[in-house]
Amino acid sequence: MAVEELRKSSMMSHLLDSMDRGEDIGHYGRLVFVMVGRHFLSHDELVEHLIKDKDCDEAKAETLIKQVEARGYNPPKPDRIMDWMNKQDFAICDANEAESCNVYKSLEFPHEVYEKIASYYERHQ
Predict the structure, then answer these.
(1) What pLDDT shows up at residue 99?
(2) Residue 77: is it exposed, middle or buried by C-beta count within 10 angstroms (0-12/13-18/19+)?
(3) What DSSP character marks residue 76?
């Protein structure tokens, strides 16, 4: 059920399909996957998908998930994803279609994610 929810985002569907094919989605692709996916998948499910990436073993997956959880990262904004995508070979989303990089348009996150974002913007204005 949770994977189907993630697939509502063309970018997340692309990342899932690419990992299923054993492709290396790059460090930033994996980072985006965890930053978004952790709100929909269990820890074990995240690991299960990440290790399908030919450049990610279980230890690397565990480390990345723990770092994202410890820092409480919110899903990234489209401009951040585009910036990261320019730093690696793998295309995380369709650069010609900015909306494909916007997970906030297609996915429903837990209420606390939106609260955290609002709180951040209030403090930095």
Answers:
(1) 84
(2) middle
(3) P
